[in-house]
Amino acid sequence: xxxxxxxxxxxxxxxxxxxxxxxxxxxxxxxxxxxxxxxxxxxxxxxxxxxxxxxxxxxxxxxxxxxxxxxxxxxxxxxxxxxxxxxxxxxxxxxxxxxxxxxxxxxxxxxxxxxxxxxxxxxxxxxxxxxxxxxxxxxxxxxxxxxxxxxxxxxxxxxxxxxxxxxxxxxxxxxxxxxxxxxxxxxxxxxxxxxxxxxxxxxxxxxxxxxxxxxxxxxxxxxxxxxxxxxxxxxxxxxxxxxxxxxxxxxxxxxxxxxxxxxxxxxxxxxxxxxxxxxxxxxxxxxxxxxxxxxxxxxxxxxxxxxxxxxxxxxxxxxxxxxxxxxxxxxxxxxxxxxxxxxxxxxxxxxxxxxxxxxxxxxxxxxxxxxxxxxxxxxxxxxxxxxxxxxxxxxxxxxxxxxxxxxxxxxxxxxxxxxxxxxxxxxxxxxxxxxxxxxxxxxxxxxxxxxxxxxxxxxxxxxxxxxxxxxxxxxxxxxxxxxxxxxxxxxxxxxxxxxxxxxxxxxxxxxxxxxxxxxxxxxxxxxxxxxxxxxxxxxxxxxxxxxxxxxxxxxxxxxxxxxxxxxxxxxxxxxxxxxxxxxxxxxxxxxxxxxxxxxxxxxxxxxxxxxxxxxxxxxxxxxxxxxxxxxxx
Length: 633
Fold this sequence. Notes:
Blueprint: H1 5-22, H2 25-35, H3 42-57, H4 61-74, H5 79-91, H6 95-106, H7 113-125, H8 127-130, H9 132-152, H10 157-168, H11 177-191, H12 201-213, H13 217-230, H14 235-242, H15 245-256, E1 265-266, E2 297-298, H16 308-321, H17 346-361, H18 366-375, H19 381-395, H20 403-414, H21 419-431, H22 438-446, H23 449-468, H24 484-502, H25 506-513, H26 521-535, H27 540-545, H28 554-574, H29 576-585, H30 588-611, H31 617-626
Antiparallel strand pairs: 1-2
Helix pairs in contact: 1-2, 1-3, 3-4, 4-5, 5-7, 6-7, 7-9, 9-10, 10-11, 11-12, 12-13, 13-14, 17-19, 19-21, 21-23, 23-24, 24-25, 24-26, 26-28, 28-29, 28-30, 30-31
């Protein structure tokens, strides 16, 4: 008799409970051994399970992880060991570890189906940590693993259900709910004519929920009623039918997008091997403490790692950000952006970045990307390229620093003139995470080389400050973990974020400057200046006259002007026609300012190119030496 891990463990627990009750430990060993003969390695299986459980309960999670990883290496087909493993992974914030581990298991050419499922679940475990923009990429990776099984067996229930669950959690904007419906319908089709299994109830519940999200209430009710015929009086079905047609839509919306945030996700998939249907499977008013991949039961509450403000903002504003006709509806205030007469055109900037990001997310070809960039106006084009960098970084294998060699090649294929912005965008991607793992990011950025890493750290600082300073001022202490040159770029990026947040409000900028360590305030000044020229390039009069607003000694004004030169120069390197158009339409005085700024930027760049390359801080250093000739009299 061939017995799986779940059956072995179930038999073991049953025998142990009975023998403990009659207090015959020796009799337990004598009887259990022959009775569990179908489990070829039941002793080692049980021992590993019990030992791992012991270590987790006694604050030695590392030993527990090691034991379970050893067990899953021996039995890669086990969903049961993986279920316990992933629950502890989530509890200890180690999602990257499980992803890396399961990636290694699926590399085996003969990897069993469950190995792909475990990796798919592991990707979803990480979703609450990466936030709204990363969630989609992780979900796509999860779907890819399920699809690998479907390619071999289109009738695999778990794979169909897993893809349906992925789509069911996507925001309505992406219009994936129809996909969810079709996969759940397939699950119900596969269930017909077979013995009823406890997990079949999931198909009826989820299909009904998906119909509600599509506004098809009658079909939802029919699905739940059909479920009751197989699972009479189950509370999860009853409560949905009793909620009332006028209330159920808002309740379901809250279940899958609680408070417009990413809720906790329950990773317990033990229903797949349960003998009986649990009393609660997908509670309508769930409040789940743990999360993970399996059933993806989303509950009310905040994400563990991600400021809910960020997801809520993204969720509400994405439809407007993606369509320039509705940009006026975008609300940037939750990110700390100040409205005022000199406010930066943040809505258009965000629109450009989102368009670039979505180009990568939707898998557009290089030619499609080039065509879209060509059709954009000169103001938006640089931000579009930063968004491209974000999207490509999100699609790469973050476990492999060599993957960034692909990044450089792909971005050069698109447009090498915007490579600095592509790199900054890559850094922005990693800066979106509220609690980034600095050591891992440093390792990844090393794969970009000194030039690439410098600009990536700039984008990293920009995103960290823009998206998380409001909720966590401690992020400005990241410099303590970075090498000095990386810190300089990081705080230059922070200065860029300050410009977006504060615009022409110099008092707001000065207040934010207090968050920056004194040793790096010069870098924040240069970033602030770069933000001014980068976003207000068409108004040179404002950019250069703003210098007088800088409340600082001469050094602060010099750094601000250094950043102005950098901003105009980077725009010129990427799109000279745009800058030439500004020069042609400017007054004589402004033409002089911009022309001299471009000359200084170019001369400084040529100087450092001879010295060994553009490493961000040394380019700024060379600009600083020449910047006193920028202002025309």
